[in-house]
């Protein structure tokens, strides 16, 4: 996350505005607004970018067709994809070359999932009850991959479901260490607090997973961008509040 933000920062200082950014560089409004104030322009489609411009692709990863579109528009591309996401892309290509049917565990519509699914043909499993898994047939072997910002618990259930249906499946747990560490911390503090506040953006996958982890342990939890969003009613009769933040939340 920090690496991706630094890429845009360096581009703004070295080349000057405008610097176009394909998708929000990270899912946090404070970061995005700060960069846009300095001359970054966030777009959702490469075709929105004027020909010959400089564009930074976001940390979430991009499908190959975005690079094709960029080349057709003579854009200078700097790819700020997270190395852990690149690792998932490389795994997908490897298993595809081996002839395996690839199953991706992830949230439909998330930018990381779009980027990963664009690498090679694969099937998305949005949750363990997804009928897609029940209908999936694969005689040539199965490889399971995961979005990097999922809940550890939910991912474990999905992996079990894949292995139950395909006992010989190769399944990789690709959850980012920053995501895992934060979820572990919430698990550890859940018994000692009356409320959990997660600081981060509403569209951040890893922030939402932190809130869900706390709630799954019976602790009320709220996702907020900043202190101005705290409702005093949440704090009534609460003696101890746990605070955490997502991987994309600035210090």
Structure characteristics:
11 strands; 4-stranded parallel β-sheet; Cobalt-precorrin-4 Transmethylase, domain 1; alpha/beta; 4-hydroxy-3-methylbut-2-enyl diphosphate reductase activity; iron; Rossmann fold; 3 domains; LytB/IspH; 4 iron, 4 sulfur cluster binding; 251 residues
Please report which band the strand proportion falls in: under 5%, 5-15%, 15-25%, 25-35%, 35-45% or over 45%. 15-25%
Please identify the structural class as seen in this structure. alpha/beta
Tell how many strands the DSSP assignment holds.
11
Gap from first CA to last CA: 12 Å
- Return the string of H and E elements: HEHEEHEHEHEHEHEHEHEE
**Strand order in space, largest sheet:** 2-1-3-4
Quickly count the helices.
9
The CATH topology of the largest domain is: Cobalt-precorrin-4 Transmethylase, domain 1
Shape: flat
> Unreliable segments (pLDDT under 50, ≥5 consecutive)?
none
CATH superfamily of the largest domain: 4-hydroxy-3-methylbut-2-enyl diphosphate reductase, catalytic domain
Broad CATH class of the largest domain: Alpha Beta
- The number of distinct structural domains comes to 3
Rg on CA atoms, Å: 20 Å
CATH architecture name of the largest domain? 3-Layer(aba) Sandwich
Helix share, percent:
25-40%
Mean pLDDT: 92
* Largest pleated sheet: 4 strands, parallel
Pfam families: LYTB (PF02401)
GO molecular function: 4 iron, 4 sulfur cluster binding; 4-hydroxy-3-methylbut-2-enyl diphosphate reductase activity; metal ion binding
Protein name: 4-hydroxy-3-methylbut-2-enyl diphosphate reductase
Cofactor: [4Fe-4S] cluster
């Amino acid at each position: 996350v920090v690496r991706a933000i630094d890429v845009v920062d360096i581009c703004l200082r070295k080349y000057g505005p405008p610097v176009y950014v394909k998708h929000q560089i990270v899912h946090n409004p404070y970061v995005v607004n700060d960069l846009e104030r300095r001359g970054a322009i966030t777009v959702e489609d490469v075709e929105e970018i004027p020909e010959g411009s400089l564009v930074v692709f976001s940390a979430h990863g991009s499908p190959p067709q975005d690079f094709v579109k960029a080349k057709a528009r003579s854009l200078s591309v700097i790819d700020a994809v997270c190395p852990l996401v690149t690792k998932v892309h490389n795994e997908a290509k490897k298993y595809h070359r081996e002839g395996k049917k690839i199953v991706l565990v992830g949230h439909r519509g998330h930018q990381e999932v779009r980027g990963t699914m664009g690498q090679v043909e694969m099937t998305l499993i949005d949750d363990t009850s997804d009928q897609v898994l029940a209908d999936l047939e694969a005689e040539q072997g199965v490889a399971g991959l995961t979005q990097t910002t999922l809940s550890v618990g939910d991912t474990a259930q999905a992996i079990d479901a894949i292995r139950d249906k395909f006992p010989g499946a190769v399944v990789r747990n690709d959850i980012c260490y920053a995501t895992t560490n934060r979820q572990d911390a919430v698990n550890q503090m859940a018994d000692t607090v009356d409320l959990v506040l997660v600081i981060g953006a509403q569209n951040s996958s890893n922030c939402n997973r932190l809130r869900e982890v706390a709630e799954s342990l019976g602790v009320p939890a709220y996702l907020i961008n900043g202190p101005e969003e705290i409702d005093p009613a949440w704090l009534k009769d609460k003696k101890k509040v746990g605070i955490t933040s997502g991987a994309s939340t600035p210090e």
